[in-house]
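YtzI protein: structure tokens wanted.
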Amino acid sequence: MIWLFILMPVLIIGAIAIYFEKKSGMSPPNENIQDEKLGEVITQNGINSNGTHGTD
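Answer:
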């Protein structure tokens, strides 16, 4: 009977943790935003590799 007092809080906290994990988990990526950011990354990579922009 004492094992109920030990396991019940663990099960309750585990269930709450799993609930919030599912609720606040990652959402699918927005592909429109990714396309916009890809253009920025390509531009910055070109600037960084050519050394045409920056302070020396």
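The longest helix spans residues 2-23. The chain has a mean pLDDT of 76.

Cheers.
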